[in-house]
Design goal:
Layout (H helix, E strand, L loop, with lengths): L1 E3 L3 E3 L2 E4 L3 E6 L12 H18 L13 E7 L10 E7 L3 E2 L5 H13 L9 E5 L5 E4 L7
Parallel strand pairs: 4-5, 6-8
Antiparallel strand pairs: 1-2, 3-4, 5-6, 6-7, 8-9
Bound molecules: 3-hydroxyproline.
The site of 3-hydroxyproline has 6 residues, from α2.
Length: 145
């Protein structure tokens, strides 16, 4: 639970896929990921990033260099499996917006969905960028920990 200025207490997931990201449905921040202005999505995502950074310490088991939040990914909330792509926007680093669904972000989201029992091993899921419509697919292939 993160206290997000302007939005109150919001449940946020944090997952790692080569970098750490916070994940939250845009709807929980009062935004429709498909129709909202990119500026508004960036502002909301950045507010989440700053709130998580201020309220949580991120740990990485092997590398202190990787122990930081790289950004926030706003989603359409469709984490339960469907064949249709689930849409997201990745706002990372210094308020940069990825034109793709984000390799490390998709990897982190797959790990999160697998962890929640929403994806099975070798079940391919598709992810779409809300800004460009580009699609990545990915799947969890084995557990490491
Ligand atoms: O797709 C990726 O993982 C990279 N693109 C933006 C955020 C990461 O650096």
């Amino acid at each position: 639970m993160v206290d997000v200025p302007g939005h109150g207490k919001v449940v946020v997931d944090i997952a790692y896929g080569g970098a750490f990201y916070a994940f939250v449905s845009a709807e929980k921040l009062g935004l429709d990921i498909c129709s909202a202005k990119t500026r508004d999505l960036v502002d909301a995502a950045s507010t989440v990033t700053e709130a998580v950074k201020a309220q949580f310490k991120i740990n990485h088991p092997d590398s202190e260099d990787l122990a930081f939040l790289y950004g926030t990914i706003l989603t359409d909330g469709k984490d339960a499996y469907t064949k249709e792509p689930t849409t997201n926007i990745c706002v990372f680093a210094d308020e940069q917006v990825d034109r793709s669904p984000t390799g490390s972000g998709v990897t982190a989201r797959i790990a999160l969905q697998y962890h929640k029992g929403l994806l099975e091993l070798n079940q391919t899921r598709a992810f779409k960028s809300s800004t460009t419509g580009s699609v990545f697919t990915g799947k969890a292939v084995r557990e490491l920990l």
